[in-house]
């Protein structure tokens, strides 16, 4: 039974990873989270009742807190999912993204390096530091092509720039200090427990409530959609089998325009919660956000070929499951938004 230290474990992907790891491993889990607006203990109600789970309320940029977490819990691996992630918020206020995504990652790396120095040889050899990143570090694509692990970084938003910087620090700690790191770059995740500022939950909840569905620009921006459970499965496979010092792109192979996604959400909500008129009537085109990347698409051949990972969800099955989850968890939706967010437009620059 190993101990995994999961930072950002109360956030969207992090909490899903905690649920997935409890269901698919025998590992002990130490969750570290600052509990910002997008991280909530409501996401961890079941895990926090499990004796294999410990929770540490801390900021990964707090050197003392991270040193104590390593010393007390002695993890066999770190999975770093702690991050500010919403592009629109990074446009309005970039500094928190630098504080958490860059400085926080650097503090965590250094705490891991010092912890590793005190371990015996077998523990050092088996230790892993998995840094979870995004395809947004690669910038934007034209009408064709895919992001591979060899694609040059070209971030176009403050969020993407902060994640790109963090990736570079992780790589540097491998080459300079031989810290046994792994990096993953994923496409757009969707699924349960996602804070309603992101496209999927925002459109689902607005469609349910009969509120306008704001579509940026012409709605033609393309994203590759990955169900969060498939992403979590990929992370554990990379942690177990990935080659130290390597990076792996994790994508669902589900390219859709934003307009296509909104239309399908409307159709599924109409099916599960019928109304006399289609929710498509709620679509509203609004001014695009500054620096909006046109297209992302992931080449996931490496993780498929080398590690045997394949996504289980199709876009249609995953979307239906996701819409049903938000319909059945309205109390969660209201509680995580209360006093923090009313689905207002952000990121106008």
Structural class, by secondary structure, is alpha/beta
Largest sheet: 7 strands, parallel
Strand order of the largest sheet: 3-2-1-4-5-6-10
What's the alpha carbon Rg, rounded to whole Å?
20 Å
β-strand amount:
15-25%
Mean pLDDT: 97
Give the % helix: 40-55%
Per CATH, the superfamily of the domain at 3-194 and 225-253 and 292-314 is: NAD(P)-binding Rossmann-like Domain
CATH fold field value of the domain at 3-194 and 225-253 and 292-314? Rossmann fold
Distance between the termini: 48 Å
Shape: globular
SS field, number of helical segments: 12
CATH domain class name of the domain at 3-194 and 225-253 and 292-314: Alpha Beta
Number of strands: 12
The CATH architecture name of the domain at 3-194 and 225-253 and 292-314 reads 3-Layer(aba) Sandwich
Can you describe this structure?
- Helix 7 packs across helix 9.
- This protein has a domain of 244 residues: 3-Layer(aba) Sandwich (Rossmann fold).
- The chain contains twelve helices and twelve strands.
- The strands form three sheets. A seven-stranded parallel beta sheet has the order 3-2-1-4-5-6-10, sandwiched between helices. A three-stranded mixed beta sheet has the order 7-9-11.
- With 349 residues, the protein is of the alpha/beta class.
- The mean pLDDT is 97.
- The relative contact order is 0.14.
- It is globular, with a radius of gyration of 20 Å.
